[in-house]
Amino acid sequence: MDVDDGDAGLELVHLLRRITGRLDLMAAEFAAANGLHPTDLRALIHLLDARREELAATPGWLSGKLALNSASVTALVDRLVRAGYVRRTRDNRDRRRVLLTVQDEAIRLGWSFYGGIITDMVDAMREFDGAELAVARRFLDRMHDVVRADKPTNPVVRLVPLDEATTERLLSVAVHEARPTDVMPTQDGADTWTPATENAFREFHRSHFHGANGTVMYAVESEGSLTGMIRMARVSQDEAETGMWLGRSARGKGIGTAALRALVAEAAAAGVRTIVADTTSGNSAALGALRTCGATLTHHGDDVRAELPIG
Ligand SMILES: CC(C)(COP(=O)(O)OP(=O)(O)OC[C@H]1O[C@@H](n2cnc3c(N)ncnc32)[C@H](O)[C@@H]1OP(=O)(O)O)[C@@H](O)C(=O)NCCC(=O)NCCS
Known about the structure:
Largest sheet: 7 strands, mixed
Bound molecules: coenzyme A
Shape: globular
């Protein structure tokens, strides 16, 4: 759609540009004063956000956030490691995976940069009431969606049937990026990862290896990384039930929708005529993925039943 000079939105776009321009300038000055490249500071901010949101940060994740190729990210992480801001560790369960952990020094650095400005911004926000802040939030979320470097680009996914080794790699994603209740039935609602819940995860997935008990479980692989799980549980000759979860850092990029499409293809090949799923009215991401793949949604209070005809 065209934009003309009289468009009311343009003024807001210019304001947003002024704010980001000012913050960029402050960040560049701060980076120079601390002997950092501006991109190194951006990387540190992403890593600090990941720590706060309990996301497992890997070099691949960081390269998506910064829109940099993997060689540049390797050089950048080398610099941050040398400066003592970041550590590289091997994931205990998935030895192929490198995790990036920010060190206390980086937290001190981040706070010395942002502490003052965050306090001033939060103070200024007290001039607005809850409803106004809710609109501001919705507006900023929407603008962020437009400029995101990692927005969905029809990701390519592969469904990998679970075996021992893949289950162990999947457990690593679950422990770092999901809660037990997101990923399996739990006893007494236990929702923290302990050796017992980790073993329950292994046992639960093992009980469905090779389609045992009528359920096939697949790890969802996107761009070479495991991101979550999708299952197909045969209910009858014609019908199968599905459910899925992704690690937090993989959500909202179209991977869930792509995984569901891939599952529909598997189901069609296995002679399934209808896929059903149960979710809740508040789960917009699950509902969006199901709707995009052609499901009809029926609401019963907060519960939603999805029916997806095949073929
Ligand atoms: C549900 C889940 C698998 C969906 O996968 P996803 O990759 O995050 O979803 P997608 O990026 O493919 O987005 C699907 C749709 O939901 C929308 N969406 C994604 N995240 C959203 C969010 N946080 N809020 C609102 N809508 C969202 C997308 O815009 C898209 O809608 P569209 O097709 O109309 O554009 C994933 O979010 C997840 O693992 N959630 C936690 C576990 C869970 O709830 N599992 C489902 C149980 S039934």
